[in-house]
Structure formats: C-alpha cells, structure tokens
Amino acid sequence: MKFGVIVFPGSNCDDDMVHVLGTVLGHETVKLWHKNESLEGFTTDDCIIVPGGFSYGDYVRAGAVARFSPIMKSVIDFANRGGYVFGICNGFQILCEAHLLPGALLRNRDQKFIAKNVFIRSETDNAATNRRLSPGQVLRIPVAHAEGRYYADEETIFQLNQNDQILFRYCDGAGEVNLASNHNGSVGNIAGICNEARNVFGMMPHPERASEDILGNKDGYSIFRGLVEAVAEVG
C-alpha cells in the first residue's frame, strides 16, 4: 500500500502530506507531478491525495484549472474504479470541479481569507476518514482559505444528509452547530463530504497541520490513521 501526493503549480501542502503519511505514519509516499498522464505503479489498493495550496494561482476560480491537468483524467478513472482519493482544501475544490464530489466551494461569506484554528464535528463513523471518530466528536483543525464556502442545491444537500455523506460540520468548542461557528458561510455548516460510493473524500480544514504532538495539536492524526486502515483493508 502506498500514497501518491499530486503536485500542481502552486501546491504548498504537498510536503506536509508527504511528511505526515511517510514520516509520521510510516507508509510509502511519493509525489506525482500534475503533467503525468498516468498513475503508473498505483493500483486501487493505494490512495491518491490532492493536497492544499493555490493551484495555478487560483485563476478563474480555485481548482478550475487544475481539474484539467493531465493527471486528473487518471485520477477520475482511479476513483471510478474504487480507488481512494482524498482532497484537502484546494484538493477539495479540485475534486468538486472534477465532479468527483458534488457541489462547489465559493468565496467566503465575508469575502476575506480565513486562517485560524476552528472546531469541526464528526458527523459519521461510516467513512474511511472518520472510522476512528465517533459521531459528535469535536476536533480542532486549522483552516486557511478564501473560497471555502460549500454550496450545493437543495436536492444535493438532501441526498448528502440522507446518504450519510457529510463528514464534518463547523461547530463551536461544545459541538454546537450554529451560525457563529460557520466561519465561511457554508450551507449547513458543511466542512467535509464524501461521494456516495464512500471512496472519495474532501474537506476544507487541514488535518495535516494538526497531526503531531510537536505542533501542540494532534486532532487531525485520527483522520489519517483511519484512512490508512481503510486502504490497508482493501489491499
């Protein structure tokens, strides 16, 4: 089992992901340049990570250009064949642009870049990223985005709720989901979702920035540990 971390022009969280998956968790992790046209050497027993950053400078809108990078055709095929794909921040935006996840990430409600620690609540344990979390469990995870306001139409939101596809919601420290804790204006305080097949995951907060004791916050570690365990079981 190994992890591939895609690198686009403007990616800035790729090394963080390689460190967490490779050094902290001890799994083979390699970088994949966006111009690669295939995922040679990877099987659906592995996992592809689409990291955070500002791919192509966020021109047009975040993720809109990266979605057409050569490697994305293979990523879409990989996901459609059941391979695990996890997008964080800009990676979440790219996966929505590629229609691997429903909805879109829009400009934050107050039209400002947000960079701070926030609280999110796990909404399920029925997903690889959440398998080590209990529904209702609160995590403190950093965010850093200008286009993180999750939006989808009413039917899509209904289906996400019906199918238990909402991974995380923004909340306060007590786990209450309310307007004050909805920092970017996301519909339903949504901070992360998965696809219906439960093999593609996206979230705006950065668990890779909260996965070691040395950082003073290890709340994100369980997200990656759960993902590793799920991928290992498939393999």
Can you give keywords for this protein?
alpha/beta, 235 residues, globular, single chain, 25% strand
Question: Low-confidence parts lasting 5 or more residues at pLDDT below 50?
Answer: none
- Which range does the strand content fall in? 25-35%
Residue-averaged pLDDT: 96
How many E strands?
11
- Structural class call reads alpha/beta
What is the terminal separation in angstroms?
A: 7 Å
Query: Percent of residues in helical segments?
Result: 10-25%
H/E element sequence:
EHEEHEHEEEEHEEEH
The DSSP helix count reads: 5
The strand line-up of the biggest sheet is 2-1-3-4-11-10-9-6-7
Rg result:
16 Å
Major sheet attributes: 9 strands, mixed
Question: What's a concise summary of this model?
Answer:
By secondary structure, this protein is an alpha/beta fold.
How would you explain this protein's 3D organization?
- The N and C termini lie close together (7 Å).
- This protein has helices at residues 14-24, 70-80, 90-97, 154-162, 221-234, and strands at residues 2-7, 28-33, 47-50, 84-88, 104-106, 114-122, 138-145, 149-151, 166-171, 190-194, 200-203.
- The mean pLDDT is 96.
- Helices cover 23% and strands 25% of the residues.
- The chain is built from five helices and eleven strands; from the N terminus they run E-H-E-E-H-E-H-E-E-E-E-H-E-E-E-H.
Blueprint of the fold:
Elements: E1 2-7, H1 14-24, E2 28-33, E3 47-50, H2 70-80, E4 84-88, H3 90-97, E5 104-106, E6 114-122, E7 138-145, E8 149-151, H4 154-162, E9 166-171, E10 190-194, E11 200-203, H5 221-234
Parallel strand pairs: 1-2, 1-3, 3-4, 4-11
Antiparallel strand pairs: 5-8, 6-7, 6-9, 9-10, 10-11
